[in-house]
Amino acid sequence: MSIRTRLILSYIGMILIPMILIYLFYGMLGSLVFNDELNYYEKANPVKLMGRSVYKGEKILRKLNIDYINNKEKLKDINYLKSFDKELDEVFLGMVVKENGETKYVSDILNEERILTNIPDFGENADMQYDTIEKHGFVVGAQRDFIIDDSNMSIYLIADVLEGRTIIKKIEIYTLAIATLAVLIVAFGLTFSMYRGIIKPIEKLKNGTSQIKKGNLDHNIEEHGNDEMGELIRDFEDMRLRLRHARDMHIKYEANRKNLISNISHDLKTPIMSIKGYIEGIKDGVAKSPEKMDKYINTIYDKTNHMENLINELFLFSKLDLNKVDFDFQTIDIVKYLKYCVEDLSFDMEKTGGIIEFNQKNEEIMVIADLQKLQRIILNIIQNSMKYKSEKNLVVEINIKEYEDLVKIEIKDNGKGISKEDLPYIFDRFYRADKSRNTSIGGSGLGLAISKEIIKAHGGDIWAESEINEGTSIFFSIRKC
Predict the structure, then answer these.
(1) What is the mean pLDDT of the chain?
(2) CATH topology for 228-319?
(3) Alpha carbon distance 227, 230 (integer Å)
(4) Pairwise pLDDT comparison (9 vs 354), residue with the higher score
(5) Fold designation for 326-479
(6) Is the pTM of this model over 0.70?
(7) Average pLDDT of span 173-199
(8) So what does this thing catalyse (predicted)?
């Protein structure tokens, strides 16, 4: 959910949820806590009292009038008067009976001095109904005066308004408390939701930026969600991972740079020292005979060629590493091209007592490749096979396997093989399984590293499999046309 949608729903919730909570609280808790008071409110409300009490009051008064005509003394019977309390209570009325100004009977709900001392006297309000005594907070629902023997008797039906108002005020306070509580609950809930949705992620990002500022690129920020803050955190994490990768690559490149300088220094120093030694020998007159002079000069020439090859390969690798080498990609028949390579290399292989074979049944497989760069890869691999051959005659096999969108080429030999410890590093620049970096077998240590960069530029991959004393297989893939 987006932050915009969340804010809109929060505003709506601030209005609707308190109303719903007030309704629920009022309905559920009100009936339990204020049940009697709510009934009192309904009955003591002057407006509602008039409508509800008229019928009941008139019915009781008619009953009293009849009894007065038939049996006046019955009105003096307290138990008889009490019998009306239940009916009066249904409309929340009470009865007061006075005889000669003295109170004889009062319903329990009206037993207050405030009411008893302020009701009208005999004859003051006779036959007048619903006279509101505002000052004293009650309503005289009806007054009937009777003369029994020598006694003046008045019967009053009264509703206590003041008590009703007190309860109404209490209910209003209760309603206000519920409304306040509902608003607080909603405000807390929405604030907590916004805190989790906005403030907390911002604090995470702030902590993350602080960690990056300190140089800690390994501090991970947890996933948040699918809103804008979640997207921001994911982008931040992506940036952090890229920065960490850049840092790691920088460290790696720095280590490679130092190793590169060390390797170049070693590989150049060896032939230079050899050239210097032979030149000093010539200067000192050691090469006295023409044969010896020719030997010294040829050695110097070979060492110079070795240095030139090393510098050329280093220059090529640097350009490949910087993506500054131009490729001439074209569509070729890889089967036909490999047959040509095998024929071209067979003569050199036969001179060393080895053979090269190409096993392919397909007539034609079209791929996209740079012929010159592809030839360099094949030469690098086969030259390595020739350098590291075992005591038995060298056999090199070239196999090709076709897939839906690429072809896989295998160049396999039966040479010395490569140990499992060295195998993962053979495509690194200047890496040699011979830790002494003996130059007697020649090579710059850049052949397979160059091959790897060329294959990457072709959109393929290169890898190796090997067993000691069993041989080595170099695989590489090329896109089909």
Answers:
(1) 78
(2) Helix Hairpins (1.10.287)
(3) 5
(4) 354
(5) Heat Shock Protein 90 (3.30.565)
(6) no
(7) 74
(8) ATP + protein L-histidine = ADP + protein N-phospho-L-histidine
